Amino acid sequence: MTEDTAVRPIVAMTGITIRFPGVLALDGVDFSLRPGEVHALMGENGAGKSTLIKALTGVYSIDGGSIEVDGEPRSFSTTADAQAAGISTVYQEVNLLPNLSVGENVMLGHEPRRAGRIDWRGVHAEAAEHLSNLGVTIDTRSLLSSHSIALQQLVAISRAMVTDSKVLVLDEPTSSLDRSEVEQLFGVVRDLRDRGVAIIFVSHFLDQVYEISDRITVLRNGKLVGTSAAADLPRGELVSQMLGRVVDEFENISRAADRQVDRTGTPVVSATGLGRRGVLEPADLDVFDGEVVGIAGLLGSGRTELVRLLYGADHADSGRVAVRGSTVRVATPRHAIEHRIAFSSEDRRAEGIIGDLTVAENIVLGIQARRGWLRKVGGSEKETIVSEYMAALGVRPADPSMLVKNLSGGNQQKVLLARWLATAPQLIILDEPTRGIDVGAKADIQRKVTELAADGLAVVFISSELEEVVRLAQRIVVMRDRRKIGELDAHDSSVDDVVAAIAAEAREAVA
Amino acid sequence: MTKIFKHRLVLPIAALVALILVNTISRPSFVSITVRDGQLYGSVIDILRNSAPLMLVALGMTIVIATRGIDLSVGALMAVSGAVALTIIDGSGSPDSPATLGIAIAAGVTVTLIFGAWNGFLVSVLGIQPIIATLVLMLAGRGIALLITGGFITTVTSTPYKFMSQGYLLGLPFAFYVSVVAIVLVALIQRRTALGVLTESVGINPEASRLAGVRSRGIVWGAYAVSGLLAGFAGILYSSNIMAADANAAGQYIELDAILAVVLGGTSLMGGKFSIAGTVIGVFTIQTLKSTITFLGVPPAVSPLFMAMVVVIVVLVQSQRVRNGASKLWATVSSRKEAEVAR
Questions:
Q1: What structural domains does chain A harbor?
Q2: Does the ipTM surpass 0.85?
Q3: Is residue A352 within 8 angstroms of chain B, CB to CB?
C-alpha cells in the first residue's frame, strides 16, 4: 500500500481482534482515519464492518490490538468513553428521542444551565445555531417525530457536532433517503470534511460510495482486505474484494452447473412481476424440478427481498405466484408452506432457530406447525424423524435434547435444514445458509444441496460467496439496486462474469 | 447428584420447604392434621382449600406469560363471574336446585371466557401491548360487575353453591379437587398435545415461529381466553366462599399474586419456557406465606411489607445475575482457601 503517511491519522486502529463465542469476528484488522477525509468501510454481512465500528465507539471491548485517537492510546469500555474522545455515531435507525423537540434532541445532555436549572431559551438558541451550521433552518421547538428521516439524521449529526466531535461515523445513513435527501446529506458531509472532521461512511450503494469517499477500506470474514484511494480502485475490483476468491476447499463437490436440468415442463414455482414499492422492482423467477437457481448480488440488491416476497414473509404489492402452473395466493408463510415451499432465513438467530427449545423440538417444529397443535409429533415418531435427519445432515453433537442455542452456527443451520426437509418440500429457499459457519459444515451443506437437487428438489440458493453460487447453481439470477438485472446460464459462466454483471455501471443496465 | 440441584424446580421447592419448616418450628401444630367426622382439618388443609382461586388464576397466567404476555384483568373477571352467577341464583325461585347452579356457573364462566377472548383479540389481532390491553378490563370489569348486581353486594343462600368452597368430599375440601382437576387438565392439554411447545416457541421467538408456519395469532388468542375462563371459575369459588358477590373485594390484587406465583415457579416474564409444576409450587408458597403472616402475629397493617420482603429475597435467589455473582464470590473465597492450604 502506497499511502501518504505525512498526515497524522486522527484514529489509528492496529491489529484489532475481537472474539465472540465460536467466532473470530475481527482478526488483526488495521484501520486508520485521517482528519478531513470521508472513508468508506465496505464488506458483506459478517465481514466485520459493524464490529469494527463498535470497537471504535466503545460498544465492544477489544481482545487484541490497540486504538490510538489523536496520537494517544485509548481503551474504550463504554460508549461514553468514545464520545468523550470525540467519536460520534449516527446509526441507520436514528437513535434519537422522537417524542422530544428538535432542540431538546440536539442539546440532550449538554443543556445550558442557569442557576442550576435548564435554560430552555438557551437550549433552543444554541440548537438553532448548530443546525444552521449544517444549513438546516427548522423550528427547534417542533416535535422530532414530525420531521422526515432525512431531517432527523441531520439533527443526529448536529447533535454530534455539539460535543465537538472529531470523528463522525455514519452507519448506512442513506438507506431510507430519496435522491434529493441524499444530496442534502452529502452537502453536509462535504462541508464537515472541509472543516477537518473525519467521517467513516458505511453504505451498500456503490454509486454513493464513489461519489462521496476519498478512501475505501474493504473487510471480509473479519479480515482486512485492503485500503485504497477511491480513485485508484475500479468498481469491479471493489466488488471482487468484497465477495472474495475463496481458495477452493471444495474441489470434491463437483461443479453442479454441468448437470442437465429439464426445463421443458411447468416450473415448480413461477413468480411473475413480483414486487413491492420501495423494496423490490417487479421481478420474474421460475424454478424447475431438480434445479438449483442461484441468486447473486450484493447485500441490499433485492436478493433477500425477492425470496421473502415469494415465501409470503413480506407482502408483495404486485405480481403473482403460480405453483405447478396454477396461480395461488401466498400472503403469509403458512400459505407458502401449504404449497410445500420452505424458506430458511439469512438471519439464523432472529428468524430461524427457537433458541431455548431443544434440537429435537426445533427439527419437528415445521411438521408440527403444519399439522396443528392437536396432533402432537411425539414418542417414537418424533424420535425416528429426529434421528433420521440428524444423521443425514451430520448434526454435531448428536444429542437431540441439547438446547439449539448452544450449537455452533453450522450445526444450527443443519438443524434448520432438517426442520424443512422433514416437511418434504417441493421448493426450498436457502438464504445465506453458509454464512458465518465453519468450513466443514459449509462443505456438508453444499454437498447436501447438490444431492437434494439431484433427487429432484427445486432449490433457490442465495449466497454472498459467488464461488459457491457458481458451483452449486445451474442458473444464476443477478440482482442489483433492488432490481433483477438478468440471468446467466451457470454452464458457461465464471465468477468473473457474475462480478462483471453485478458491477456494471447503472447506466449500462438501463441502456 | 449435581443434575438434581440444577433442575429448575429445586429453588422453588426449597423455598416452599423452608417456609414450611419456619412455620413448623414456630408452631409445631402447623403440620398436624386432625380428623373430625371423617374430614381432615388443619393449617395445611386450609392452605390446600384457600389456594384454589389463586391456583386457577395462576394456571391461566402461566400460559399467558409463556406467550410474552400478561393478564391484569383476572381479578376483575373474578368479580364479574361471581356477580353473574349470584344474580342468576338470586333471581331464581329454586336456589338449591342443581339446574340453577349449573346455569349460574355456566353463565358466569361464559361471560369471562368472552372477556378473555376480547383481551386476546386486542393483543393478537390488534397488536396492543398486553399490559395495556388487559388494563382495560382490569378497570372496567369491576364496573361491569357492579352494573350486574345493581350496585349492591348480592348475597344468597344456596346449599350446593356453598358446598363448592366449603364442602368436603372423601375427607378433603371440595375446592382442592377443583384445583387438582384444573392442574391436570391444563397440564394434559399443554403437554399431551403440541400446544405447550408451540406456545413456548411463540414466546421464545415470535418471528422465527411465524416463518416456521406456527399459527401464533391463534395460540396467543387462546391463551387469554383460557386465562379468562379460569378466572371465571376462580370467581365462582370466591363468591361461594363468602356467599356474596362483592364487586370490589373479589379477586382484589390476585393478578399480582398470580404473576408472583408464576415467577416463583421459575417461568420467566420474558416468555417462552413455562412450568405448570413450578406454578403449583409457587401458589402453595404464596398461600403458606399468607398463613404464616397471620399466625406469626404480623399486624395486618405491615403484612404487605413482610410479604414484599420475602418476595424480594426469593426473587434475588432466583436471579441469574445474583447467582453468577455469588458463585464468582464463592470461587474466589474457595481458591483463597486452597491457596492457604497449599501454603
A1: 11-243 (3.40.50.300), 256-340+425-510 (3.40.50.300), 357-424 (no CATH)
A2: no
A3: yes
